[in-house]
Specification:
three-stranded antiparallel sheet; 59% helix; globular; binds zinc ion; mainly alpha; 4 domains
Length: 490
């Protein structure tokens, strides 16, 4: 602890410097100037690493979790600096305890700040990575994410080596970089929460509750302690089974196979974990805070649009729901545009997000997509584009669960094309509109529709969607025909 206290001071100084950076990010420049973009990205990354190091140092070397003062620590300089004329032993101990408790709470507070700052940095960095793309004017290739960042820093296309590269937002990304200035990059989330108006704070509370929602059946696992005899010696081994039920796996056979016939089961222990939608308290706080602050700021700065809104709907009531709507809209885009595999690998704008939650469980939260007032207000204020119907999310999850293998066996598919096709099937949007909405082309949407027609998902569609899919000509290549035949047989 004595070692950690000076580190806490160091951390605080760094966080205060970061606070200035967060307040001074120039958004319009960030959007168009690749050099500035790279500079901000590098600063965030460097700060993240420094903060992470400090947190590790303080947490693990500092001994914050030592439960009682140990005699070894009794003679700290902090105690000796304030001598008393006749220190009784009890008074000495009490004063020591007081200093120690002040130091411990200071260290705990700084760890809290560091964790929030790290969460905010992670979100900001991921938004930038999602935003970043370059287009090579020579070979015509789009480079995205980290490859694009590398191309900017070397001023060279990673594909052909040309230096004629153009910085552009990634049309396949899910990002909202205007959130970055609202993230508590210096970890001051508590202060920012107290500065919110009471309405905004209520919305903040609702968002963090939504993100904490449990999103799946609890996963049971069990571990078995096995006693094995090897020669004269007996040793113990732990084997973990991550299945739902003990009956579902022939664990005795597994153990015999691994440890031989002499193995004996000593004990079985069960564990149960329930996934939540976003499994990190600090990330939840950062996301909620940023969405609430951004939405309120936009609302109060766009007076003429708000006047249009309040002529049509109950503006005050809508403002309460609006940050939630914008967040769920972004989450919906994320689930639509990213495949389960890429969600497992890269959480992007939503770190710690459960990659494939059960739709039936998150549906109550996602029903806000049906709120027409919020959709109208968000669109009028320029916060979102077209509304995303709840049905399209439901369909995406159903397809991921039941048809993914079949669709993948038909070859590579653009996730944006798929999103456009699904939106077209579940809404009134023409395919070209849906394609535009997801920054893709109509032909990509048609390709996706053809695949959906081949794996025959019509039983999952509303009637209008079934009609649209029925009009799609399944490609008559022999391979496709063969595949359709194979499907009929199964
Ligand atoms: Zn190139």
């Amino acid at each position: 602890m004595a070692e950690a206290y000076p580190l806490a001071g160091k951390a605080e100084r760094l966080l205060n410097i970061i606070e200035e950076l967060g307040a001074n990010i120039n958004l319009p420049r960030l959007r168009r100037d690749p050099k500035y973009f790279l500079e901000i990205y590098r600063i965030l990354l460097k700060d993240y690493d420094d903060l992470d190091l400090l947190r590790n140092d303080i947490e693990f070397r500092g001994g914050v979790y030592t439960p009682y003062p140990t005699p070894r620590m009794m003679g700290t300089t902090a105690v000796r600096e304030t001598p008393e004329e006749h220190p009784s032993e009890i008074g000495y101990l009490m004063r020591y305890a007081k200093i120690r408790s002040v130091q411990i709470s200071a260290i705990k507070a700084i760890i809290d700040r560091l964790r929030a700052a790290l969460a905010a940095h992670r979100i900001a960095i991921n938004h930038l990575t999602e935003y970043c793309a370059v287009w090579c004017q020579d070979c015509g290739k789009f480079l995205r994410g980290k490859t694009a960042l590398k191309a900017i820093s070397t001023n060279r296309c990673q594909n052909c080596g040309s230096s004629k590269i153009l910085f552009t937002p990634n049309s396949a990304g899910v990002f909202r970089i205007e959130l970055i200035p609202y993230l508590p990059l210096s970890g001051d989330y508590m202060r920012r929460i107290t500065q919110l108006s009471s309405y905004a704070r209520a919305t903040y509370g609702r968002i963090t509750r939504y993100l904490r929602e449990s999103v799946g059946r609890s996963v049971k696992s069990f571990s078995i302690i096995v006693r094995v005899r090897a020669g004269d010696k007996i040793f113990r081994r732990r084997v973990r089974f991550s299945t739902e039920a003990r009956e579902a796996v022939n664990y005795e056979a597994v153990i015999r196979e691994r440890f031989g016939p002499s193995a004996r089961i000593e004990s079985i222990r069960y564990r149960r974990t329930q996934p939540v939608l976003l499994n990190d308290r600090y990330t939840r706080a950062c996301i909620a805070l940023a969405y609430v602050s951004l939405t309120y700021d936009v609302w109060f700065s766009k007076k003429s649009q708000v006047r249009i809104i309040s002529r049509k709907i109950d503006a005050e009531k809508t403002l309460l729901k609006l940050p939630i709507y914008v967040l769920i809209h972004d989450l919906a885009r994320y689930f639509l545009l990213k495949s389960p595999k890429s969600r497992r690998r890269l959480a992007g704008a939503f770190p710690y997000l459960e990659s494939s939650p059960q739709i039936s469980i998150i549906e109550p939260v996602f029903t806000i997509l049906r709120d027409e007032d919020s959709a109208f207000a968000a669109k009028t204020l320029g916060l979102t584009e077209e509304a995303i119907p709840l049905e399209v999310i439901r369909l995406k999850f159903t397809i991921e669960r039941n048809y993914e293998q079949k669709i993948r066996s038909l070859g590579l598919l653009s996730s944006r094309g798929m999103a456009a096709a699904l939106l077209h099937l579940t809404s009134k949007h023409e395919l070209s509109q849906a394609a535009k909405f997801f920054n893709t082309t109509k032909s990509e949407g048609i390709k996706a529709l053809e695949k959906l027609a081949q794996v025959n998902i019509s039983s999952e569609l509303p009637e209008s969607g079934r009609d649209k899919l029925a009009k799609i000509e399944v490609p008559r290549t022999t391979r496709a025909k063969g595949f359709v035949e194979a499907l009929k047989e199964t």
